[in-house]
Amino acid sequence: MGTALHFLGLPGAALLGLMTGVANFVPYLGSLVAAFAVALVAMPLGTSTLIWVMVAYFSIQTIEGYVSAPLIQRGAVNMPPAWTLFAIMAFGAMYGVLGVALAAPLLAVGRVAVLWLYVEDWLQDRQ
């Protein structure tokens, strides 16, 4: 992301790319927060720059969100995206912003723990 912003002429492109990467740790909402910050930096440079920056930003985020992340999640923990959305809503309602930020990692850890401790150990011992 930082490279694309640099080629489009944004000041502080490396820092904006780093901030975007860190914000992506919060699924679904992090990229929207980062888009707002990137748009604020691009606004003083003119409308055409703002449009090109937003096109580049949303293109990269779309590829990452719909192609890269689901492939990684499926390969790493075999976690359906619907569970992630439910966890974000539930943890966000219970714990606010911190719950939204930690929902996906806690869901992944919980799912793996249940599979290891219950499904593999408990159910295999009963056979």
Number of helices: 6
Low-confidence stretches: none
What does the overall shape look like?
A: elongated
| Overall tally of structural domains | 2
Structural Rg? 19 Å
Distance between the termini: 52 Å
The overall average pLDDT, rounded, is 85
- Assign the structural class, choosing from mainly alpha, mainly beta, alpha/beta, alpha+beta, or little secondary structure: mainly alpha
Largest sheet: none
Give the oligomer, counting copies of the same chain as homo and different chains as hetero. Answer: single chain
Kindly estimate the percentage of residues that lie in beta strands according to DSSP. under 5%
| Record field, number of beta strands | 0
**Element pattern in H and E:** HHHHHH
Report on this model:
The chain is mainly alpha-helical and 127 residues long. It folds into two domains: 1-76; 79-127. It is 82% helix and 0% strand. It has six helices and no strands. The chain has helices spanning 2-7, 13-23, 30-42, 47-76, 81-95, 97-125. α5 packs across α6 (97-125). The longest helix is centred in the middle third of the chain and has 30 residues, at 47-76. The model has no long low-confidence stretch (mean pLDDT 85).
